[in-house]
Design brief:
Layout: E1 9-19, E2 25-35, E3 39-43, H1 50-57, E4 65-70, E5 73-74, H2 79-84, E6 86-89, H3 101-111, H4 118-127, H5 143-155, E7 161-165, H6 173-189, E8 192-196, H7 200-206, E9 209-214, E10 217-223, H8 224-231, E11 233-240, E12 256-258, E13 264-270, H9 278-288, E14 292-299, H10 302-312
Parallel strand pairs: 3-8, 3-9, 6-7, 7-8
Antiparallel strand pairs: 1-2, 1-4, 4-5, 9-10, 11-13, 11-14, 12-13
Helix pairs in contact: 3-5
GO molecular function, one term: ATP binding
Enzyme class: hydrolase
Pfam families: ABC_tran
Length: 314
Amino acid sequence: METQVMEDHIIDVRNLSKKYPSGFQALNQVNLQIKRGEIFALLGPNGAGKTTLISIICGLVNVGEGQVLVGGYDVVKDYRQARKQIGLVPQELAIDVFAFVWNTMVFSRGVFGKPRDDAYLEEILKALSLWDKRHAKIQFLSGGMKRRVLIAKALAHEPEVLFLDEPTAGVDVELRRDMWRLVEKLRQRGTTIILTTHYIEEAEEIADRIGIINHGEILLVENKRELMKKLGRKQLILQLQHPITQIPSELNGFVLQLGEDGKTLTYDYVDNQPTNHVTEVLAAIHRSGIELSDVQTKQSTLEQIFVSLVEESK
């Protein structure tokens, strides 16, 4: 049975809940739509429900309540069609170590009903610096090389969606660089990439949209730039030429913090608000007679926004 394919969403999660026999509520009424061709970062602390959500979408864990569509196919009713569109790189090295690299790739394409395409497999192996290891037995590869094979295997059947579950945890710098280079190529081809990571700076660098999950509930889903603009705070840091012991009365209308050494004034503001008063603060400081040696601005990182939202949801 086929479900109507939605044009703009490759993944559509509707009212998804999951409760394990132990009584643990892993997911609670999750609704999430992921657009075709985007890089989506799913962030959350340990135990937040990230892996359960990914596992259900990939057909590895049974749906509790609700519905999940991948490319318009229901992951329960149309399991084979839905699963065929997904490539998964799990955290664990789940791979047949007694197989050879090339045979693993060919076999993976066959499992998903794809015709043999040696040129495509060669391209993937070269992109992951595995071409000279294609005839090697996986058990004799290093941990980093095994991780590369896992990524190559997930891409062997040319999936529409690639899940990367903590892909750079514990990997070397070279693999991280190769992988993000490959991710960019996949994006250009239109592949949808869903990433979970503890390295939030990676999400900040490459993701189009950010989703934050905690206690099995989606706290927000937002375009990265809009999220940074909406929730990111800025600081105006003013270095004074001469220390002061108290803030002059001309500045009483602004919430300013005086550094312990009396040599800095700090003003917090939200960038997207028209009443951020930065110009007024600088004008008032000039009127007060305070002489500045330097002016700096500092903006919240995605990690600081993430930590703040998770703290609020406790």
